[in-house]
């Protein structure tokens, strides 16, 4: 793996019809923002060839909304990415690292946000960048890391949608 993209799912409804968090779906804004996030990542040259996706409804719908921007990307669902802790996400990334040049994970906070911060710290990110990332990791946000020969993470990009979503 040369590059890792950590993408939080799109904006989701507050509560599903069943009341089950796992079944929460994207709002219309969430669908639009997920599509835009996929397009922006691709425009920036960050088209994944493998995506690891939580099985929750909102992450599945995020994948559906953005997959047109990366038509050659292979997708795999993982139950354990649903509300996964940072270490679980990292374990999945390490398992899949040899299978892709550009690997994307579509998941949830707080684990995804915690992993972003962990990789920024490990990669020696500046204090300003850490402050910006600590503040929030909203829906449809993405963090991109390069990996050097020793698999050390190096910050590549942080894509934060504006409050209220993409225009």
Structure description:
The protein has 167 residues and is an alpha/beta fold. The protein has a single domain (3-159), classed as Rossmann fold (3-Layer(aba) Sandwich), CATH 3.40.50. The protein contains five helices and six strands. It has helices at residues 28-43, 57-66, 86-96, 111-122, 127-135, and strands spanning 3-8, 50-54, 74-78, 102-107, 142-147, 153-159. Strands 3-2-4-1-5-6 form a six-stranded mixed β-sheet, sandwiched between helices. Helix 1 (28-43) crosses helix 2, helix 3 (86-96) packs across helix 4 (111-122) and helix 4 (111-122) packs antiparallel against helix 5 (127-135). The radius of gyration is 15 Å and the shape is globular. The N and C termini lie far apart (32 Å). The model has no long low-confidence stretch (mean pLDDT 93).
Considering DSSP H and I runs of 4 or more, what fraction of the residues is helical? 25-40%
What would you call the structural class?
alpha/beta
What is the number of helices?
5
Q: In percent terms, what proportion of residues is strand?
A: 15-25%
Radius of gyration: 15 Å
How far apart lie the N and C ends?
Answer: 32 Å
Average pLDDT across residues? 93
pLDDT under 50 segments (min length 5)? none
Q: What is the name of the CATH class?
A: Alpha Beta
The largest β sheet comes out as: 6 strands, mixed
Q: In the CATH hierarchy, what is the superfamily?
A: Phosphoglycerate mutase-like
The tally of structural domains comes to 1
């Amino acid at each position: 793996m040369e590059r890792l993209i950590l993408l939080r799912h799109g904006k989701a409804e507050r509560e599903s019809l069943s009341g089950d968090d796992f079944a929460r779906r994207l709002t219309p804004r969430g669908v639009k923002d997920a599509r835009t996030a996929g397009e922006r990542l691709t425009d920036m040259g960050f088209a994944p060839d493998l995506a690891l996706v939580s099985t929750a409804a909102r992450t599945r719908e995020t994948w559906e909304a953005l997959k047109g921007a990366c038509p050659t990307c292979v997708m795999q669902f993982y139950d354990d990415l649903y509300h996964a802790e940072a270490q679980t996400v990292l374990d999945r990334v390490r398992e899949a690292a040899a299978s892709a040049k550009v690997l994307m994970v579509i998941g949830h906070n707080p684990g995804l946000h915690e992993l972003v911060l962990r990789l920024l710290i490990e990669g020696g990110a500046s204090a300003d960048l850490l402050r910006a990332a600590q503040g929030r990791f909203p829906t449809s946000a993405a963090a991109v890391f390069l990996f050097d020969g020793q698999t050390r993470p190096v910050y590549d990009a942080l894509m934060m949608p504006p409050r209220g979503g993409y225009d």
